[in-house]
């Protein structure tokens, strides 16, 4: 194990029966789905950076992050890991912030996710991206976690939002030592053997955080302890952090992985017995109600009518001649090529594919009037061709085109029929999003690498 680079060393928690977790790659985001079909809360894991020169394996494939995501999914959450620009250098900090924002849109658009119950978990250098979320505090963000974070930008690097200043400002708004009713729960996991240049800003953050901050201490841990220090202390710290996130997302922590009895005493925790104020969602996932040509509901196809039950028939004795003249002839078998084509067409109408799942997410965000989450499912270079021949290119053009419609709350389309073939999804729909009343339309979507790259309106 010591011969491996740090990024490829195993996760400190055992990850067993990972086959029950389904992993789906959507652009720069890997989604980990738990067994079952219930809608649930979600965690986005945000790796640090910059990475070493000559990095061959992207962070979302590092064992530590596949481990975190798999364990979270095994415990009933949807988990996601995003590859972002900070791995290439501090000059990519703004790009990384955009990457994380887009990943949030992809995660909240997932049909298995309750979009109002999401946690963000930042590691190492990604702590520089956390300040903006601490400042904006969207309603859907239930909690935020920081593990051995970097909280001060190096000299010469443009700072985004200073996390210590933000958490202090919000804490003061709650009064002397009191937690504001709208306060965002924040968990810091800090290590006792932290590098000096990181430990100072972390101490400043702790001083500013006050009652708004929960802390897990790993006294013997080093930066990257969750892949470098395979100790009971490390395992206990990671498990406590997962328990904390699950509790704040409104999930029961009963499904946690068992730890040896000694684990409970090997990590120092300053977590107060603060009860979670979040409640589990009781909503059931509705069929996505679409988008550019997106469904509010699926019409039941006429072919679902059941066949009549068999009726008893009266026995008849007939001469061969009578049979020839009155009995229906046996249908001739279909030629093999026609039968294969018929089967292929039937499969194309019935199949769920990776492309159709992406289009379903796009439809759900359209119906929810969430413009940024809707755009996050499009490639940055996506092309959309309208029925009049006009062409929109890129997310900026799409945003300008769709913003008035989203702001007016006119995002309703009823799916009539769908066919899938490889990267393509073809839909026949009734649009209810214009001043012209119900408008029949046919829309073609092309999906690559988990993002919509092309849309064509044919009518």
TrEMBL record:
Pfam families: SnoaL_2 (PF12680). Residues 261-331 are annotated as: Disordered. Residues 363-455 form the SnoaL-like domain. Residues 261-296, 312-331 have a biased composition (Low complexity). This is SnoaL-like domain-containing protein.
């Amino acid at each position: 194990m010591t011969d491996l680079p740090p990024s490829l060393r195993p996760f400190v928690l055992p990850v067993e029966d990972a086959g029950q977790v389904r992993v789906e790659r959507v652009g720069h985001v890997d989604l980990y789905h738990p067994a079952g079909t219930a809608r649930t809360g979600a965690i986005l894991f945000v790796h640090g950076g910059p990475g070493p020169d000559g990095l061959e394996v992207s962070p979302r494939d590092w064992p530590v992050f596949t481990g975190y995501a798999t364990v979270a999914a095994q415990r009933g959450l949807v988990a996601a890991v995003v590859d972002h620009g900070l791995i290439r250098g501090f000059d990519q900090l703004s790009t990384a912030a955009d990457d994380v924002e887009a990943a949030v849109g992809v995660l909240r658009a997932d049909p298995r996710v309750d979009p109002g119950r999401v946690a963000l978990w930042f590691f190492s250098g990604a702590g520089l991206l956390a300040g903006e979320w601490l400042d904006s505090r969207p309603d859907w963000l239930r909690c935020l976690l920081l593990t051995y974070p970097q909280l001060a930008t190096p000299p010469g690097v443009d700072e985004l939002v200073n996390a210590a200043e933000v958490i202090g400002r919000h804490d003061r708004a709650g009064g002397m030592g009191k937690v504001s009713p709208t306060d965002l729960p924040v968990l810091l996991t800090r290590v006792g053997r932290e590098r000096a240049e990181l430990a100072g800003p972390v101490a400043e953050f702790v001083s500013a955080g006050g009652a708004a901050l929960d802390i897990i201490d790993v006294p013997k841990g080093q930066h990257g302890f969750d892949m470098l220090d395979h100790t009971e202390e490390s395992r206990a710290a990671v498990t406590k952090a997962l328990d904390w996130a699950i509790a704040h997302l409104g999930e029961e922590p009963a499904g946690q992985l068992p730890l040896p009895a000694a684990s409970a005493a090997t990590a120092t925790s300053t977590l107060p017995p603060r009860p979670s104020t979040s409640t589990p969602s009781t909503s059931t996932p509705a069929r996505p109600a679409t988008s550019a040509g997106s469904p509010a509901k699926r019409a039941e196809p006429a072919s679902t009518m059941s066949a009549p039950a068999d009726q008893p028939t009266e026995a008849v004795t007939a001469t061969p001649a009578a049979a020839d003249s009155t009995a229906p002839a046996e249908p001739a078998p279909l030629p093999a090529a026609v039968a294969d084509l018929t089967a292929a067409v039937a499969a194309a109408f019935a199949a769920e594919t990776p492309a159709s799942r992406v289009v379903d997410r796009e439809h759900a965000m359209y119906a929810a009037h969430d413009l940024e989450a809707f755009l996050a499912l499009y490639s940055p270079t996506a092309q959309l061709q309208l029925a009049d021949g006009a062409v929109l290119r890129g997310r900026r053009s799409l945003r300008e085109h769709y913003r008035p419609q989203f702001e007016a709350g006119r995002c309703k389309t009823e799916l009539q029929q769908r066919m899938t073939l490889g990267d393509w999804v073809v839909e026949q729909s009734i649009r209810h999003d214009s001043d012209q009343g119900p408008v029949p339309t046919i829309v073609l979507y092309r999906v690559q690498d988990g993002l919509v790259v092309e849309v064509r309106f044919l009518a």
